[in-house]
Amino acid sequence: MTTPTGKPGAAGWLALAAAPCFAVMAWITAASPALCLSDPGPLPLDGMTMMYLLMSLFHLPPWLRLVSDRHPIPKGD
Known about the structure:
mainly alpha
């Protein structure tokens, strides 16, 4: 996923774009129930919103790898 220079390539950028896109889609779906044809119920967390939230969670590992590479954990002796 990284180029020889250590920067993410096209696949890396797509992997990093997935989680924020799904999070925004979940927010839009929860904020505007008119987009969904189903009754929103007592909470705005309907099926589509939960699906987008789960998809954003499943696509977090590239972000976690990016953060862990920048801030290595010091190893004790």
